[in-house]
Specification:
With 193 residues, the protein is α+β, with helices and mostly antiparallel strands. It is built from 4 helices and 4 strands. Helices cover 73% and strands 10% of the residues. Helix 1 (2-96) packs antiparallel against helix 4 (169-188) and helix 2 (101-114) crosses helix 3 (130-140).
Length: 193
């Protein structure tokens, strides 16, 4: 019996050892699986954090580019306005220049009257241009009364019944403003290499 008890004890010890070994292996396997899952979760969080960082960076870059474009556009618009202000100042200077303006006024009147086949019913000019208009009309052989209006500056308005033909420096500038603004903007835009 003692042999039987020893044999049973030995078999029980071996079985216990096998169960303990299997438990260790399962525990090791569970620990390894938990480590892999923890690493996967950490990697996923790291990827998400990196994606969020990249998204924030892209948004910040886009905002900076938008701000730079806005600043460039504002500077460009200011520069265009300065150009037009300078042109308007030059027009005002020309209109007050008694040496240069009479020939310009005469050319504007000739061009306006040449566009029509008949003499105008009346010619409207700035009060300061009334004598100049009368002299130019006489030299053109056009017989029309000269009227004055403060809203006409640097040119003439010819009235044919209900039709008006206006030829002024400021009117020409206004008509060309969009094209000129585009040209000025093109000159002010830096060339990209």
């Amino acid at each position: 019996m003692a042999n039987l008890a020893a044999l049973l004890d030995k078999e029980a010890g071996a079985e216990i050892e096998a169960i303990v070994e299997e438990a260790r292996q399962r525990a090791s396997s569970i620990i390894d699986e938990a480590k892999r899952e923890a690493e996967a979760v950490a990697a996923r969080h790291a990827r998400q954090a990196e994606q969020q960082r990249e998204a924030l960076l892209v948004r910040a870059q886009s905002a900076a580019q938008l701000e730079a474009s806005s600043m460039r556009l504002n500077a460009q618009q200011n520069a265009i306005q300065q150009v037009f202000d300078a042109v308007e100042a030059e027009v005002a200077s020309l209109v007050s220049d008694t040496d240069r303006y009479p020939s310009v006024f005469d050319a504007l009147l000739r061009e306006a009257t040449g566009a029509q086949e008949s003499a105008p019913d009346r010619v409207v000019v700035n009060p300061s241009d009334a004598d100049l208009a009368q002299a130019s009309l006489t030299s053109l052989g056009v017989n029309a009364p000269v009227e004055t209006a403060d809203d006409i500056v640097g040119g003439v308005r010819l009235v044919y019944g209900k039709t008006h033909v206006e030829n002024t420096l400021s009117g020409r500038l206004d008509a060309l403003r969009d094209d000129l603004a585009s040209d000025v903007a093109h000159v002010l835009t830096p060339k990209e290499s």
